[in-house]
Structures are given as structure tokens and as C-alpha cells.
């Protein structure tokens, strides 16, 4: 893996909460890793391990204390104000545990929002929305409001919104956390399809071994540091799942 | 312990509480000021122009009470929206419902009582200031108007504390009946209501018809008499409500289908409005009516203020008459913009005053002619000396040129030769009629003062239409004052109603804007999005209110007869009023930004 091929490149990342003269808490310590273009990477760790903090740094929702984060060639740590907003709008697609759909908008309007922010013409927008709706088989749900959708449907709409503008990376923060097992499996299958068909890089943060078993590579994070790394290579998913469980067994000791 | 926690919750949101307290205090203060007038029968009797003045004040009081109830309802819902989550959390941690109920009850009641007490004190101070202001700046002298009036204090205290006890009970019931989970997740769910086109169309048409009836009733106040006001109030309220329900939603929905809706945050804006406006229909109706009443009241008030000088023209053939003018008076006269000026020589003897016919033939005395009927038109005419010799001695303006403290002297017009022989004290009198009384008022005021100083007799009839103007200013003062006062009171209440209603939706919006922030919406875009959303919520009742006023002013036509008109010069009044309204909008906007915008988004 070469640096030029990386979508995300993190070097010497640190995050300390609390001011210099107060009691400080170091949430992240010297994190280094890369995500290659088209890769499906998982970040696993228990609650409080720092995985959400890490995701927030990558997506510019929070600023690091030290270190570099480069996403698709942009040095995220040097951006300010509108640059940050534009970066999130253009380069990153988000899926959250609690869907984060705007309940005053229809599914179609929710999906179209990232394009509207860019000022895309309505014709192009309609086309993009319908394309992505076909891929995620939600074409018949477009006119509904989030309140009329099931959890699984909501998350598919959220996924559609996350990829409609072809971001350079799709980030998921426990996207299956609020779903039943069938819906969770469907969503993960969809993410795999998107990853393979559209060669979109995916970064998944989770504490669930089942979700993680869909990834190609998993980084284990503990107390703010990356402890170990697991690669799926050519194993089938269930074998990889077993390997993850074993790793977790020893990693959490 | 729980009490301490509740107090800590209040401390955390002290700024929001301060806004709430300030709003309630202002409302109580305004109510006190109005009650101070409305319950003061001596004041009303002394300043009433029409016999129905106490009726008008009673009507105003009822309106104000209704508005106060609505206002406290909205303020209370704002309070509740701030506290639901906290109390839900306490209950989840195992606090007893009864204990929570007590806390809520006490919190509401204490807040209300504090607001009422401060409000009454503030109202006292404001009344004092207002009386002074009216005396100094508007030249109104209102008899029997005092700042400290016990019945008004009692009325305000009883109404407010009573309403707050009701509000406390409502909160108690509401919080103890709602499930903990609902309290914790109280962020509004967007309820999408079904649109039934046929029903909407019927509602829209019905609304228009009702509005039509209401507007007609206002215009036909001469026929309908006092029945016009309640009729108009009911039909316009219902009509506005139905029209809002039918059209605003349809309009937003059709906008959502356009390409414009797909640009930037427009779809979000329309989505927000879509479910807001539905929630807000009732409130927008009330606010639009309040807006109309406030604007209408101020327009009429300032209309009287501006137009009295025009009216005064109807009351005399000349603006002022100066006797034996001095050099100083001449300088003042030179400053006036004069339409007509004439000087006559008088010889006063006993009960008689003699004029020179030759002088009057050369410089005929102008007489006031008025047409009768609805549209009174005034003109100034002169007659031949032969005719004037007969009519002149009965013309009140001509008689007024020579008065003493006991009587008006009887005029007699004699030939030049007779006049020369006539004995008596010789006086010259100069009559002046100005183009624009309002413009020249300050100068004429000085002239009138000099005249009064120089001649010991009460100069009432000697100084023409200016004197009538001075008298009328006092006479119409009550109406003018009530217009200003009610206008400002209504404006303050309506804008606060709107403010609290909008602000009580803010906690639910917090989450939405946090989502937009995460999605990469620029800070500026969110700011302008909120500005538009709230702007539209302010704009809708504003537009409807202006339309109401334009029709409603018809009502004052009988009271403001030609050449006065309730529509004259309303532009500047509207501009000032809209300026004040805009200030309220800006306050609401800044508060909303502070509550809603994600903290991380601020650079």
C-alpha cells in the first residue's frame, strides 16, 4: 500500500481534552494508519476506547491536538470555518446510528440535500436521486416522510443520502446499532455492494463483531491507541467472524 | 435535593429564563398602564370625546385580557418546553411524580408572581414617564391621569396571579400525565397532515367570504353602529384562520415541487415551514389581528395628531388676528407663509366698534363657506361691500375682531366721511391666514402669546382658527392618546407572543441544525436559513395585518370627517410601526440563533 493510493492518511494523531492547567484526559495517543482507495476498513473497540473521537477527527467535527489527518489530499487539520463545512459536504458521506434524517423532509428531499448544498441543477439532482434509490431499492419510499418508515428503511435512506454526491469516503458510526438483525444484515450487504461496485472507500466504526466481519481490514483500538490489526484476506465472512471473536477475546484481556 | 437540582437547571438556562421573565414583566407593565386608564372613570369622563368612550375602553380591556391569556399560554409553553427534558430525567432517576408536580407548580407560580410584582412597579414608572411625555411632547393635557392608581394595581395583580395559578395547574397535570419516555424525547415529531384539496378550496372560499363581510362591516359602521365591531372581529378572525389554513399550506406545497426548492437549504426551509405553519395557524391568526389592531390604533392616533391643523381650517376665516401690531409681531408675521392678509382700522366706543366701508371695499373681509353633506369642502369668499354691510355684523369671525373681557363689540360699517368724524379709541387689526397651519404652528404660538400678554381680555375669540386648533388638541387628545397607547401595547404583546411561540420550537430545532452541521452545511447558510424561516413567520401575519388595517380604517371615517381622513399620511406611521416590528424580529432571530446553532459551528 503506497501513500499516493490512500484516501485517508493519519499520522501521529493525538487528542487531549481539558486545558493545560486543568486535569487532562488523553483520548487518542499517536494514531497512525491509512485507508486505501476502495478499501472497506473497520475500527473496533469497546465503549470509551476512543473510536468515536477518532471518527470525529477524521470527519472534522472535532479538531486534533496534534498530528495530521489527510483525506483525499486535503489536510483536514489546516482547514477553517467554511472550508470545513464544504469539506464535509463534498468529501464525506455519513451514516449515523440514529439515522439523522430530517423529519420535516421527505425521503427524496433528505437524499437530495447534499446535492442541493452544492447547487446542483434540479434535473441532475432528480437523476442522481433515482439512480441511488434504485441501487438501495428504496425507489418506492421516496415520497414518504421518515416517520412513515421502518428503522431499516430509514437507514437505507440515510445511506442513500450519504453516497448520492459520490464522496471520497463513506463513514459509518455504528450504523447497525439501532437495527434488528435482518435489517442490519441487509444494510451491511448494501454497504459491501456499494464498496465493490462503486469502488467507494468505507470506514466503519463499531463494537459489533458481526458488523466488523464485513470489512476487509479491522483496526482494534483500546485506550486511545491502535492495538492490533486483522486482515480478512481470502477467508469467507464466517471464518473471519470467528477470527474477530478470537482476537477480541485476547485483545480485551 | 430535588429542589436544588431544579434550581441548578434554571441556572443553566438563566438567559432563557431572563427573556421569559422580561417578557412577562413587560406584559404585566403594559396591562397595568392600560388598567390605569380603563379603571379610572374620572379620567375617561374628563377626556372622552364621544359618549361611547367608556365602551371603547371596556372593549379595549376585554381585548387586552384575551390577548394576555393567549400570551401567558405561549409563554408557559416556552417554559414547559425548556423543562420537559429535565423533569423527565428526574422521573427516570426515580423522583416521585407528586414531588415533580409540586416543583413544577411552584416554579411556574414563583416566576409568575415575580414577573407580576416587577411588572406593576415598572408599569407605575412607565405611566409616570408617559404622562410627562404626553404633556411635554404632544402637548396633551389629560385631566385626572395619575401614575399610581390602586384599583389598577389590584386588577393587574388579580388577573396575572390568577392566570399563573391556572398555568401552574396546567403544567402540573401535563407533566404528571405524560410518560417519562415522552418527556425525554420531547423533540417535536413532524406531523404531516393530509391535504384534502376540496376541503381546502371550500375553506379558502369561505374564508374570503367571511373576510369580505368583516371588511364591509367596518366600512358600514354608520349603518351598523356598535354592532359593526363585534361582527367584524368574529368574521375577520374566522376568515383569516380559514384562509391561512387553506392557502399558506397549499402555497408552500406547490413551492416544494419547483426547481427553486431544490437549491441549497430551500427544501429544508420549506419542510420546516410546512409543518410549522400548520401548528401555527391559530397563533398566526391571532397575531395578524393584533398586528392590525396595533397598527390601526397607532395610525388613527397619529392621524389625529397630524390632521387636526387641517380640521382647524374649518373653524375660522383667518388663522390669527393681531391688534396694533408691534415691530416684534411684524417680524413674526413676516416669517409666516401667508395665503391672505388684511388690515382694518377700528374705532371702539362703548359697546360699538366702527369700521370704514371704503377700507372694507378695497380689502374685503374673507368669509368661510362650507358645503354641507358628507364631503365637507371649505372655501373662502368675499362679498361686495353693500352685501357685507348686512351680513358682516352677524359673521362670527368678523365679530371676533373686537372683543373685550365683557362682550363682543357690535360692529357697524360706516362711510369713510362718517368714520373720520366718529370718536373712539382707534385700533388697527391685521388678520392673517396661513397656507399650512402645522408648519407655522411654532411662530403662531409665539404671536398668540404676545397678543395675550398685551391685551388683558381673554383673547379667545380674537385669534381665529389657531385658537380652535389649540382647543381641539385638548379635545381630541384622549382619542389620540388611546391610539398611541393601545397600538404600542398591542405591538409589544403580539410580537412577544410570536417570539415565545417560535422560541418554544427552538429545542426541537437544535437537533435538526446539528444534523445539518454534520452534513457540512455552512454556518452562514444555516444562519440565513433561520433568518428566512423566522422572517416568513413574522411576515405572514404582518401582511395580513396590513390588509386588515387598510380596510379597518374605514371605521374611523365618521370620526375623522373631511378634510381629515384616516388614510392621509399613513405611510410614515406604517414605516415606524414596521421598524418596531422588525426590531422584535431581530431579537427573536438572535435568541433563536443562540439556542439552535451548533456550538462547534461558531468559528
From TrEMBL, chain A:
Q: Which UniProt keywords apply?
A: ATP-binding, Nucleotide-binding, Transport
* Cited PROSITE patterns: ABC_TRANSPORTER_2
Q: Where are the transmembrane segments?
A: none
Task: Tell me where the signal peptide lies.
Answer: none
Which Pfam families does the record match to this protein? ABC_tran
SUPFAM superfamilies reported for this sequence: P-loop containing nucleoside triphosphate hydrolases
Naturally occurring in which organism (per UniProt): Levilactobacillus tongjiangensis
Question: What does the organism's lineage look like at the top?
Answer: Bacteria, Bacillati, Bacillota, Bacilli, Lactobacillales
Q: What is this protein called?
A: ABC transporter ATP-binding protein
The Swiss-Prot or TrEMBL record describes its family as follows: Belongs to the ABC transporter superfamily.
InterPro entries found in the cross-reference section: AAA+_ATPase, ABC_transporter-like_ATP-bd, MacB-like_ATP-bd, P-loop_NTPase
Annotated GO molecular function terms are: ATP binding
- Give all residue intervals belonging to the ABC transporter domain: 8-248
Automatic annotation (TrEMBL), chain B:
User: Is Ribosomal protein given among the entry's keywords?
Assistant: no
Give the main location.
Answer: membrane
User: One of this protein's Pfam families, by short name?
Assistant: FtsX
Subcellular compartments:
Cell membrane
Which residue spans traverse the membrane? 17-35, 55-82, 103-126, 146-173, 201-221, 227-252, 283-304, 481-504, 525-547, 567-593
Q: Does the keyword Transmembrane apply?
A: yes
Keywords on record:
Cell membrane, Membrane, Transmembrane, Transmembrane helix, Transport
Which residues does the UniProt record annotate as the domain ABC3 transporter permease C-terminal?
Answer: 59-178
The source's superkingdom equals Bacteria
Kindly give the membrane topology term recorded for this protein: Multi-pass membrane protein
- What family does the Swiss-Prot or TrEMBL record give for this protein? Belongs to the ABC-4 integral membrane protein family.
Report the protein name in the record.
FtsX-like permease family protein
Q: Which organism is it from?
A: Levilactobacillus tongjiangensis
Q: Taxonomy-wise, where does this protein's organism fall, top ranks first?
A: Bacteria, Bacillati, Bacillota, Bacilli, Lactobacillales
Amino acid at each position: 500500500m503506497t501513500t499516493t493510493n490512500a484516501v485517508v492518511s493519519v499520522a501521529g494523531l493525538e487528542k487531549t481534552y481539558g486545558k493545560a492547567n486543568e486535569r487532562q484526559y488523553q483520548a487518542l495517543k499517536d494514531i497512525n494508519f491509512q485507508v486505501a482507495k476502495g478499501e472497506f476498513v473497520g475500527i473496533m473497540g469497546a465503549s470509551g476506547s476512543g473510536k468515536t473521537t477518532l471518527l470525529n477527527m477524521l470527519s472534522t467535527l472535532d479538531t486534533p491536538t496534534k498530528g495530521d489527518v489527510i483525506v483525499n489530499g486535503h489536510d483536514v487539520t489546516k482547514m477553517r470555518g467554511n472550508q470545513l463545512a464544504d469539506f464535509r459536504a463534498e468529501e464525506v458521506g455519513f451514516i449515523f446510528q440514529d439515522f439523522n434524517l430530517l423529519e420535516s423532509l421527505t425521503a427524496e428531499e433528505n437524499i437530495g440535500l447534499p446535492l442541493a448544498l452544492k447547487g446542483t441543477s434540479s434535473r441532475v439532482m432528480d437523476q442522481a436521486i433515482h439512480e441511488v434509490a434504485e441501487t438501495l431499492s428504496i425507489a418506492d419510499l421516496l415520497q414518504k416522510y421518515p416517520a412513515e418508515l421502518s428503522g431499516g428503511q430509514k437507514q437505507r435512506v440515510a445511506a442513500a443520502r450519504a453516497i448520492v454526491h459520490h464522496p471520497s469516503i463513506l463513514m459509518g458510526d455504528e450504523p447497525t446499532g439501532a437495527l434488528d438483525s435482518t435489517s442490519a444484515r441487509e444494510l451491511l450487504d448494501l454497504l459491501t455492494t456499494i464498496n465493490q461496485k462503486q469502488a467507494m472507500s468505507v470506514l466503519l466504526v463499531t463494537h459489533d463483531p458481526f458488523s466488523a466481519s464485513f470489512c476487509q481490514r479491522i483496526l482494534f483500538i483500546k485506550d486511545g491507541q491502535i492495538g492490533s490489526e486483522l486482515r480478512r484476506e481470502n477467508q469467507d465472512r464466517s471464518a473471519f467472524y470467528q477470527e474477530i471473536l478470537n482476537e477480541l477475546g485476547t485483545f480485551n484481556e | 435535593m430535588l429542589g436544588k437540582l431544579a434550581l441548578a437547571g434554571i441556572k443553566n438556562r438563566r438567559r432563557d429564563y431572563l427573556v421569559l421573565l422580561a417578557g412577562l414583566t413587560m406584559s404585566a407593565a403594559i396591562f397595568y398602564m392600560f388598567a390605569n386608564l380603563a379603571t379610572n372613570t374620572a379620567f375617561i369622563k374628563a377626556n372622552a370625546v364621544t359618549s361611547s368612550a367608556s365602551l371603547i375602553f371596556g372593549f379595549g380591556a376585554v381585548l387586552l385580557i384575551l390577548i394576555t391569556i393567549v400570551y401567558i399560554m405561549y409563554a408557559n409553553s416556552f417554559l414547559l418546553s425548556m423543562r420537559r427534558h429535565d423533569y423527565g430525567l428526574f422521573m427516570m432517576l426515580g423522583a416521585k411524580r407528586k414531588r415533580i408536580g409540586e416543583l413544577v407548580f411552584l416554579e411556574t407560580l414563583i416566576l409568575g408572581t415575580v414577573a407580576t410584582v416587577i411588572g406593576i412597579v415598572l408599569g407605575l414608572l412607565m405611566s409616570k414617564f408617559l404622562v410627562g411625555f404626553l404633556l411635554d411632547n404632544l402637548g396633551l393635557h389629560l385631566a385626572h391621569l395619575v401614575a399610581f392608581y390602586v384599583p389598577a394595581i389590584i386588577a393587574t395583580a388579580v388577573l396575572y396571579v390568577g392566570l399563573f395559578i391556572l398555568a401552574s395547574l396546567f403544567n402540573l397535570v401535563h407533566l404528571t400525565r405524560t410518560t417519562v419516555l415522552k418527556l425525554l424525547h420531547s423533540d417535536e415529531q413532524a406531523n404531516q397532515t393530509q391535504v384534502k384539496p376540496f376541503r381546502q378550496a371550500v375553506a379558502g372560499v369561505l374564508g374570503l367570504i367571511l373576510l369580505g363581510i368583516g371588511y364591509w362591516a367596518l366600512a358600514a359602521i354608520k349603518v351598523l353602529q356598535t354592532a359593526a365591531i363585534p361582527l367584524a372581529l368574529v368574521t375577520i378572525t374566522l376568515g383569516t384562520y380559514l384562509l391561512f389554513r387553506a392557502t399558506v399550506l397549499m402555497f408552500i406545497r406547490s413551492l416544494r415541487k419547483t426547481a427553486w426548492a431544490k437549491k441549497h437549504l430551500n427544501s429544508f426551509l420549506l419542510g420546516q415551514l410546512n409543518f410549522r405553519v400548520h401548528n401555527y395557524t391559530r397563533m398566526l391568526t391571532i397575531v395578524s389581528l393584533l398586528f392590525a389592531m396595533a397598527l390601526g390604533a397607532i395610525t388613527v392616533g397619529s392621524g389625529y395628531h397630524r390632521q387636526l391643523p387641517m380640521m382647524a381650517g374649518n373653524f375660522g376665516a383667518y388663522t390669527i388676528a393681531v391688534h396694533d401690531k408691534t415691530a416684534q409681531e411684524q417680524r413674526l408675521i413676516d416669517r409666516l407663509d401667508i395665503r391672505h392678509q388684511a388690515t382694518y382700522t377700528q374705532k371702539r366706543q362703548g359697546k360699538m366698534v366702527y369700521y370704514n366701508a371704503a377700507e372694507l371695499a378695497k380689502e374685503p373681509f374673507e368669509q368661510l363657506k362650507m358645503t354641507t353633506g358628507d364631503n365637507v369642502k371649505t372655501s373662502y369668499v368675499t362679498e361686495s361691500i353693500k352685501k357685507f354691510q348686512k351680513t358682516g355684523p352677524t359673521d362670527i369671525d368678523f365679530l371676533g375682531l373686537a372683543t373685550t373681557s365683557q362682550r363682543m363689540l357690535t360692529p357697524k360699517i360706516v362711510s369713510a366721511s362718517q368714520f373720520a368724524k366718529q370718536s373712539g379709541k382707534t385700533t388697527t387689526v391685521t388678520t392673517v391666514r396661513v397656507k399650512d397651519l402645522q408648519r407655522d404652528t411654532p411662530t403662531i404660538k409665539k404671536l398668540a402669546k404676545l397678543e395675550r400678554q398685551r391685551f388683558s381680555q381673554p383673547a379667545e375669540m380674537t385669534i381665529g382658527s389657531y385658537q380652535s386648533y389649540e382647543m381641539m388638541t385638548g379635545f381630541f387628545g384622549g382619542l389620540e392618546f388611546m391610539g398611541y397607547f393601545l397600538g404600542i401595547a398591542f405591538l409589544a404583546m403580539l410580537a412577544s407572543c410570536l417570539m415565545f411561540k417560535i422560541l418554544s420550537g427552538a429545542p426541537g430545532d437544535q437537533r435538526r441544525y446539528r444534523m445539518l452541521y454534520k452534513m457540512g452545511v455552512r454556518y452562514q447558510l444555516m444562519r440565513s436559513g433561520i433568518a428566512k424561516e423566522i422572517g416568513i413567520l413574522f411576515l405572514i401575519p404582518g401582511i395580513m395585518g396590513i390588509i386588515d388595517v387598510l380596510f379597518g380604517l374605514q371605521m374611523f371615517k365618521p370620526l375623522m370627517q373631511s378634510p381629515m381622513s384616516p388614510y392621509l399620511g399613513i405611510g410614515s406611521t406604517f414605516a415606524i410601526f414596521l421598524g418596531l416590528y422588525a426590531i422584535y424580529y431581530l431579537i427573536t432571530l438572535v435568541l433563536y440563533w443562540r439556542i439552535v446553532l451548533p456550538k462547534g459551528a461558531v468559528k
